[in-house]
Amino acid sequence: MSNARWPDLASLELLLLVAEQGSVGKAARLHGITQASASRRLDTLERELGLTLLRRSTTGSRLTPQGRIVADQARVALAAADGLLASVRDLRRERDALVRVAASMTIAEYLMPGWLAALRRTLPGVEVRPRVVNSDMVCRLARDGEIDVGFIESPFLPRGLSTRYVAYDRLIVVVGPRHPWARHPVRLRFADLAATPLVVREPGSGTRSALDRVMAGRITVPPALELSSNAAVKVAVEAGAAPAVLSALAVAAELREGRLVEVPVAGFDLRRPLLAVWRRRTRLPGAAAELVRLAAASGRPAPSS
């Protein structure tokens, strides 16, 4: 490809108007600029092309033979540019009518349904393609451009992504109703929690990452069980396998029904932000941006202790 600069399309449009009107002044008015600005643009176009395109006189302006050739090619170029812009508009409409979204387990189960219902009310024609994966995978999909937006539970900002806080959550210690801690009269010591095998989520999940961070260097025993979903962890804890640390969102129903019991722990207060993430230096498509706005507008604070 030549290193020469591409002609300014607006200047080519102006040249065609001069050819049609026979006057720089008339062409300028139709183009919505002053005659002085039109003259400067045409002078710049001639200078960049290295050709004389117009013959100016007191009776008007006419294309030179070289100007007529350039004008013929300009019509082709402008038609191609119009076709390109039309294709881009179609692609944007298709993009804005689809949201590819991924969310970590806790968000997907307890918050995303409400957000998507609100999105459907706001933009009824939008198609949503959801995925439920752990927080690490959400970030990977966002970096690779495989999703438009993702939602994660994370105590820290992920690298290489744009982020926005949308809500907060709190991790709590829970046990089955027959576990000795369920009848503990005072707050459990942090050291006792660190020395107890727990039922935990798999590495890479937001819940596991937050737990590992707060317990770093304190845990002295391996997990009792390692499971890949909140539901599996809750069943194991209710059955008496071991305590667990889970999102307050994930266990709200079980706590109300008495199937799980929250155990207060001295010095353990883990509140974590819930984040929207998307590819850095990428503008969110319209429907994805609306989904993030609705998530943030839901204004869900961290559940109180």
Automatic annotation (TrEMBL):
Task: Report the Pfam families cross-referenced here.
Answer: HTH_1, LysR_substrate
**What sequence ranges are listed for the domain HTH lysR-type?**
7-64
Q: What's a single GO MF annotation on this record? A: DNA-binding transcription factor activity
Q: Does the keyword Transferase apply?
A: no
Q: Which InterPro entries match?
A: LysR_HTH_N, LysR_subst-bd, WH-like_DNA-bd_sf, WH_DNA-bd_sf
Please verify whether the record's keywords include Phosphoprotein: no
Which keywords does this Swiss-Prot/TrEMBL entry list?
A: DNA-binding, Transcription, Transcription regulation
Q: Which domain of life is it from?
A: Bacteria
Q: Please name the PROSITE patterns in this protein's record.
A: HTH_LYSR
Family note: Belongs to the LysR transcriptional regulatory family.
Q: What is this protein called?
A: DNA-binding transcriptional LysR family regulator
